[in-house]
Amino acid sequence: MSLDKILYAVAALAAIIFAFVTFEFTGLILVILGLACGFFVKGDHRRGLLIAAILLMAGGAGALGAIPAVGDYLTAIFTNYGAVLGAASLMVIVMATAERLIPGMSSD
User: Fold this and answer.
1) What is d(CA 24, CA 48) in angstroms, rounded to the nearest whole number?
2) Rounded Cα distance, 87 and 16, in Å
3) Residue 106 is assigned to a structural domain of this protein
4) Would you give per-residue pLDDT tens digits along the chain (108 residues)?
5) Number of structural domains the chain divides into
């Protein structure tokens, strides 16, 4: 298993765990995992990541809140994962900007 897949698995697991258990540095951990995940996103997957982050952060995670008994937990999980994808999107934007400015840097 490659490092990028391990990071995404850890980020997804953290989003699930932090839906049930929170502490002072929950957000920081999710952001750091998101930034690390965003570093490994290849050029052809960037658009999908940005769209998923926008959807989850714009309220898509809250759509599951109406499901009885588990809706609140699903909302918390996808809200946390939206934070991960938001940070990953920020890294993608920074890397895309750097690729345009630095000659020879590519997204491969």
Assistant:
1) 31
2) 17
3) no
4) 899 899 999 999 999 999 999 899 999 999 999 999 999 998 888 999 999 999 988 888 788 888 888 989 999 999 999 999 999 999 999 999 998 898 777 666
5) 1
- What is the extent of the structural domain holding 28? 3-101
**Residue 20 in tokens:** 């049930």
Q: Which two tokens stand for residue 22?
A: 């929170």
Provide the residue type at 65 as one letter: G
Name the CA dihedral angle for 67, 20, 86, 89, rounded to a multiple of 10 degrees: -110
Write down the pTM of the prediction. Answer: 0.89
Instruction: Please give the full DSSP string across the chain, using - where no structure is assigned.
Output: --HHHHHHHHHHHHHHHHHH---TTHHHHHHHHHHHHHHT--GGGHHHHHHHHHHHHTTGGGGGGGSTTTHHHHHHHHHHHHHHHHHHHHHHHHHHHHHHHSTT----
Q: How many CA atoms lie within 13 A of 66 on its CB side?
A: 2
